[in-house]
Design goal:
The chain has 368 residues and is mostly helical. It has 13 helices and no strands.
Length: 368
């Protein structure tokens, strides 16, 4: 999962920069970013339900093959059409892999070790979020866009060899007959619904950073390598805090931790438009990575606690579907909004949204 995430994170940055290289507008970049999660928005929950029934190994193998194919498509067809098709394939396959592997981790770790397991996994995500964009940015400057996508496509193929040693996952018995309810009925569970809300906001803070950094960096004249370094700084920040997460989690409640992360990330977005050099963007990116890096492991742990045991894959898939909806709509809105009024008001609007999310998480803490 970590090796494949490096490919995905690098490809997402490279797609944005390639679109700008082909003289695309911010709206074009927004469309391409939205295509990454267009299909998962409608299929992720159903994929999760299927994984609950057949296990994670076969879906993971299919996903790795498709993730590599998406990179090779863009490498072969250097055009907006190639970027569009590749974006859809890469986003869909990575989402299926994400649902399969995270559901497996939750079952393998068990209740006692779940927060620690997701924390360690998240450290790996942070390292891949550091390595993938830095690799992509440096490769673009050295070997060009076509060969960069081909290079990134090799990573999921390498990851596939690791599945030969992957353990089987014990699956809980299926729900009794008559309990085959609709996916959206999970939203009627108050605790799970609250987890999904804060999960969406944490994901929005994370994903909007990866979308806005290439736009902001290109606008102020940074090179692809420098933009990759900024994205890598975000990964360093998230990896650092996740190493300390077990210590933090013993001292701060889960809901308070999520609330603080959302408020602090809002303050970071508030300051970002004033950073117009690599020297100012890099440390702020590291700080944003640190505060948002706390959220994902805690959310995944809460998700497994809040969902019915026989429907955890479905709940993980529903989370990905909701996140996918945001990742489909937000880039389009962001692209259009930034073209109309510029990037600074956009950063500030995101800051307000994350601040409101922090207040919501604090209210949930008092309820729980």
């Amino acid at each position: 999962m970590i090796v494949s995430h490096a490919s995905f994170a690098g490809a997402r940055l490279a797609i944005s920069l390639d679109a700008l290289h082909l003289n695309g507008s911010t709206v074009t970049v927004g469309v391409l970013m939205s295509l990454l999660m267009l299909v998962p928005t409608f299929t992720a929950a159903h994929i999760g339900r299927r994984i609950d029934h057949i296990g994670y190994l076969r879906p993971a193998l299919w996903s790795l093959a498709a993730l590599a194919a998406g990179g090779f498509v863009i490498a072969a067809v250097q055009s907006f059409a190639g970027l569009a098709v590749g974006s859809m394939v890469i986003g869909t396959s990575f989402t299926m892999l994400n649902v399969a592997i995270n559901n497996a981790i939750g079952h393998l770790a068990g209740a006692a070790g779940r927060t620690r397991a997701f924390g360690l996994t998240a450290v790996g995500y942070s390292l891949s979020a550091l390595f993938g964009p830095m690799l992509a940015g440096a490769a673009i400057d050295v070997i060009g866009y076509r060969w960069t996508f081909a290079l990134l496509a090799l990573l999921p193929l390498a990851a596939g060899t690791l599945l030969r040693r992957a353990p089987e996952v014990p699956r809980p018995p299926p729900a009794p007959r008559g309990h085959d309810v609709a996916v959206l009925d999970l939203l009627r569970l108050p605790r799970l619904r609250a987890v999904l809300v804060v999960s969406s906001l944490v994901a929005a803070g994370w994903d909007l950073f990866t979308f806005l950094v290439p736009l902001h960096g290109a606008r102020i004249g940074l090179s692809a390598t420098a933009i990759g370094l900024v994205a890598g700084g975000f990964g360093v920040g998230s990896a650092s805090v996740r190493l300390a997460l077990p210590w933090i989690a013993r001292r701060v409640s889960e809901w308070r931790l999520i609330g603080a992360a959302l408020v602090l990330s809002g303050l970071g977005y508030l300051a970002f438009p004033f950073c117009v050099t690599l020297g100012t963007m890099l440390p702020l990116a590291a700080v944003l990575g640190a505060v948002l890096g706390c959220g994902q492991p805690v959310v995944m742990s809460l998700l497994h606690v809040s969902a019915p045991a026989e429907r955890t894959g479905e709940a993980v898939g529903l989370r990905m579907a909701i996140i996918g909806f945001g990742q489909t709509v937000l880039p389009l809105a962001v692209g259009a909004f930034s073209s109309a009024v510029g990037l600074a008001p956009l950063f500030w609007a995101i800051a307000a949204l994350l601040g409101a999310g922090g207040a919501y998480a604090e209210r949930r803490r008092s309820v729980n």
